[in-house]
Structure to design on (162 residues):
C-alpha cells in the first residue's frame, strides 16, 4: 500500500520537494547568468560590438523568460521560489563575473555558464522522471535541446575568432 501523500497536481510531496529544491538551485544559476549577460551587453567593446551587443540582449531576454518559468514551476509544485540575490550568490555554480568588455571572454563565460546549467537540468530530468513529473521533464528537455545548439553556435564563434 502506498502511504505517500500527493500534492495538488498529483505528485508525491517528498519528490516534489526535492524537485523544488533543485529548481531553486537552477533558478539561482539562471539569475546570476542573467545578470552577467546584461553586464556583457552593457559593457561590450571592440570590432564585434554590433553583433555581440544584439546577441547578448537576445540571450538575457530569453534567460529572463526562463527565470520566470522556473519560478512558476516551483510554485506549481507547491513550493516557494527563492528571490534573494544573496541566496543566489551562495547557491549558484555560475559565479558573478567582473566587468567584461572583451567579446571572446564574454562568450567563453556564456559557454561555461550553459555547461553548468545543462548539468543541473540533466539532474532535474532524472528527478522529474522518477517523480512522474512530465511538466518539469518537458521544460528541462526543451531547455537542454535549445542550449546545446547555443553552445555549438557560441563555440563556433570562439573558434572563428582565434
Amino acid at each position: 500500500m502506498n502511504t505517500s501523500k500527493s500534492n495538488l497536481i498529483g505528485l508525491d510531496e517528498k519528490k516534489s520537494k526535492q524537485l523544488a529544491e533543485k529548481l531553486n538551485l537552477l533558478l539561482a544559476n539562471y539569475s546570476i547568468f542573467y545578470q552577467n549577460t546584461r553586464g556583457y551587453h552593457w559593457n561590450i567593446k571592440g570590432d564585434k560590438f554590433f553583433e555581440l551587443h544584439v546577441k547578448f540582449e537576445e540571450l538575457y531576454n530569453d534567460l529572463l523568460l526562463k527565470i520566470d518559468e522556473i519560478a512558476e514551476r516551483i510554485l506549481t509544485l507547491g513550493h516557494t521560489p527563492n528571490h534573494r540575490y544573496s541566496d543566489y550568490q551562495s547557491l549558484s555554480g555560475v559565479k558573478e563575473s567582473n566587468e567584461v568588455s572583451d567579446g571572446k571572454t564574454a562568450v567563453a563565460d556564456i559557454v561555461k555558464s550553459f555547461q553548468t546549467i545543462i548539468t543541473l537540468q540533466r539532474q532535474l530530468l532524472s528527478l522529474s522522471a522518477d517523480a512522474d513529473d512530465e511538466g518539469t521533464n518537458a521544460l528541462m528537455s526543451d531547455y537542454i535541446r535549445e542550449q546545446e545548439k547555443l553552445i555549438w553556435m557560441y563555440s563556433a564563434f570562439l573558434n572563428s575568432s582565434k
User: Anything to note?
Assistant: DSSP finds five helices and no strands in the chain. The helical segments are 13-43, 49-76, 85-91, 103-130, 134-160. The chain has one domain: 13-92+99-160. The two ends are 62 Å apart (CA to CA).
